[in-house]
Amino acid sequence: SLDISPNLQQFFTGDSSVSLRCAGDGQTADGWTVKRTRGEATEDCGETGSDPSCVLDLSVPLGGVFWCETSSGQRSDNVSITVLDKGLILEIPALPVKAGCDVTLRCRLRSGDITAAFFFIDKHRLGSGPELVLRQVRQSDEGSYWCSTDRFGKSPHSFLSVKDPPLPQTITASPPLGSAITDPAGSPPSSSTPPLHSCMSVLRLLCHLLVICPYCVCSVLLVLMCCRRNSGNQPAVSMETRQPAELDDVTTEQDF
């Protein structure tokens, strides 16, 4: 890829120089050359093979499109750099930004930053102020950005590129104990070992039975005892013998 320092797309003449180099995994990539276009012509910006880098002179308002290329024709993504001697420029990253990161855009005059500017993407206005912060950018934030003011006009357009971060490597975990392993044909092999969750279910059922059975037996015994007690306490039948009424009124008479 093409590495740019400082990582910007727009500059004023007289700014510090811009360094461009071909890099891979953070290291200088030998065998690559920084190429550029000037109008319709394409030329080398660095020394082929020996020093794959280029220092862009900002003394004149001359930019172009830059990329890295090998002798076999392999090439990196293009980066457009604009150099102005007056007007407005937009400070925007030249290299692709990772999705999920914050990106700050600034509108600048040669004399310094602008305190009241309007920021746009394509034809849509995004906001105003001294800067614009794009929170957690994603692919939908890609587009052509520019800024403007009522007094100094507008800046050139620059494209913001967003790339997805690399996916994390997934580690294949071993199958849990007692689980069936599928063979290449797609059918799981037979196994005489019962699953672990089945054993736990049987043990749980036995525990419930041990708790419930004594309770049921005690309840039945209590009911039987209550029934026996109720049957033994029936009230006795009272038998009262009374003499006939005729016997109470008998009068004994004797003759003397």
From TrEMBL:
- List the residue ranges of the region (Disordered): 234-256
What InterPro entries would the database entry show?
Ig-like_dom_sf, Ig-like_fold, Ig_Fc_receptor, Ig_sub
Query: Which residue ranges have biased composition labelled Acidic residues?
Result: 246-256
The protein in question is named Immunoglobulin domain-containing protein
* Domain of life the protein comes from: Eukaryota
The record's listing under SMART domains reads:
IG
Residue ranges spanning the membrane: these are 202-224
The reply to whether Signal figures as a keyword in the UniProt entry is yes
User: Cross-referenced SUPFAM superfamilies, in alphabetical order?
Assistant: Immunoglobulin
For the Immunoglobulin domain, which residue ranges apply?
92-163
Keywords for this protein: Disulfide bond, Membrane, Signal, Transmembrane, Transmembrane helix
